[in-house]
Design a protein that fits this description.
- The chain starts with 20 loop residues before the first strand and ends with a helix.
- It is of the alpha/beta class and 218 residues long.
């Protein structure tokens, strides 16, 4: 089965709190899928007759639910988003046909022609999420791009995005900043700040106070 040349995956962010996820497979690939989903607070159920130690540990900590038995199409009924993480081509095809019949969204690990959606490589810093994809063509190269992004966006960007969110809320609530130009001028002031230096010298709370003082001067 070949993917149509006209196929194109559209990048989108989904609130997984509304869509419990089923992961079919119990090995290391399934574990990687599960940990990625947990980074975005997804509710995950894993089904497989064999479950790796890492997944069992997550289950013991009540992070995921495990159904330790072979896949059957009846398992799909309580889920809208399905992840197939097995190395068994027959199971992959069976899940694909079942999801197609039940109109469920499916991702099959490393088999883009069976996917309704694919997972990009993600660099996450708190609420800042940066994703990159090759439309499934060259995941090895995307891994290199992700490594570069990890260096471009160090861990302190998690604090920056929190501060930026508070700053935006203050700008929108400030009655003095009552035109688009004034609001954009305020946002441009935010970009003038050397955030790495500021965060090294101040706690996040003090930094927010510093920003409020900037707003008073506008």
């Amino acid at each position: 089965m070949k993917r149509s040349e006209n196929s194109m995956f559209f990048p989108v962010l989904i609130n997984l709190n509304k869509y419990p996820c089923l992961v079919i497979g119990g090995g290391t690939v399934a574990y990687r899928k599960v940990t990625t989903l947990q980074n975005f607070k997804a509710k995950v159920t894993v089904v497989s007759p064999k479950i790796c130690k890492s997944l069992k540990e997550l289950s013991k900590r009540n992070k995921i639910k495990i159904i330790q038995k072979s896949y059957h199409k009846n398992l799909l009924k309580n889920f809208e988003i399905i992840f197939c993480a097995t190395d068994n081509h027959e199971i992959n095809l069976s899940v694909y046909e079942d999801c197609k019949a039940e109109k469920k969204l499916l991702n099959v690990a490393d088999v883009p022609e069976l996917c309704d959606f694919i997972l990009p490589a993600v660099v996450k810093r708190g609420d800042l999420s940066i994703s990159v994809s090759s439309q499934g063509k060259a995941p090895f190269y995307i891994s290199e791009v992700k490594n570069k992004l990890n260096h471009v966006f160090p861990s302190y960007y998690a604090d920056i995005i929190d501060i930026a969110g508070d700053f935006r809320a203050n700008v929108l609530a400030d009655k003095k900043l009552n035109t688009s130009k004034k609001k954009n001028d305020a946002f441009n002031r935010f970009f003038e700040i050397n955030w790495k230096k500021v965060l090294e010298k101040n706690s996040k709370k003090k930094t927010q106070e510093y920003l409020r003082k900037i707003l008073k001067k506008l």
